[in-house]
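Q: Please design a sequence for this.
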């Protein structure tokens, strides 16, 4: 495990940039030393209480650290858990004092946007995971389907009940954040492909061959998407999706200087 952390140094100085390609979600880059501490978590999946508790513990830990701090959210805020709407409301608000917070997009978040824009896909989306999300907005989708409500009726209800600002928030989310040799994404990257050529779909959906091969680039990838009971350490990667909606455990990874830990 220790050898993996050698990828944290040295870091190359960079300046914050946004992708100018409007067809892709933004990719963010920050310089080494921009933040005194970085806290990352992934796959909240509607678990609002655990999200709030994680932020409380982060603030408690960071109180001893001078300088600016960063919280990085690695995607999948909706589905599975009971409070997707509360999670999105929380994350769209101002972060704690002394912190910046960057919220990356996961595949479940992108799918919710697609449903909102194209509700004719409702059955496909429900088969994917979305019933709990609609419940969190007060939509009894089972009753609607049993009543043989048409797609136009369901679309109108979804658009009336889900605040447009939540959808706009999800549409605005970047898909990658880089700090020197540390890369934060939801799912992983396509091994050996230059970061500028990585597709949004891979960054939000990939499992293999990334999980077995790692990035095949000089980076350490912090990711979620593939659940496990404890954080997983693979080739040049750390997976921090600990399936909070099933286990109750929301993992927070910390980076302080060149040291990586679990809060």
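A: Design:
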């Amino acid at each position: 495990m220790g050898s993996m952390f050698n990828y944290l140094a040295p870091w190359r100085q960079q300046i914050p940039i946004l992708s100018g390609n409007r067809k892709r979600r933004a990719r963010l880059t920050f310089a080494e030393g921009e933040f005194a501490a970085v806290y990352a978590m992934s796959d909240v999946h509607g678990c609002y209480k655990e999200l709030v508790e994680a932020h409380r513990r982060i603030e408690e830990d960071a109180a001893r650290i001078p300088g600016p701090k960063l919280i990085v959210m690695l995607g999948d805020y909706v589905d599975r858990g009971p409070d997707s709407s509360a999670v999105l409301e929380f994350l769209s608000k101002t972060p704690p004092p002394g912190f910046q917070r960057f919220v990356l997009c996961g595949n479940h978040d992108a799918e919710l946007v697609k449903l909102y824009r194209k509700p004719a896909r409702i059955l496909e989306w429900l088969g994917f995971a979305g019933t709990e999300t609609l419940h969190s907005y007060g939509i009894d989708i089972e009753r609607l389907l049993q009543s043989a409500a048409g797609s136009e009726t369901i679309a109108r209800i979804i658009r009336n009940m889900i605040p447009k600002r939540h959808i706009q928030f999800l549409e605005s989310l970047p898909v990658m954040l880089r700090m020197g040799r540390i890369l934060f994404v939801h799912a992983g990257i396509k091994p050996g492909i230059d970061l500028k050529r990585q597709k949004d779909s891979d960054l939000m959906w990939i499992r293999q061959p990334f999980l077995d091969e790692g990035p095949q680039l000089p980076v350490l990838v912090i990711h979620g998407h593939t659940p496990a009971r404890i954080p997983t350490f693979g080739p040049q990667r750390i997976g921090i999706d600990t399936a909070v909606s099933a286990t109750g455990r929301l993992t927070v990874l910390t980076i302080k200087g060149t040291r990586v830990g679990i809060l």
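Q: Thanks. Anything notable?
A: Residues 1-22 have pLDDT under 50 and may be disordered. The chain has eleven helices and eleven strands.
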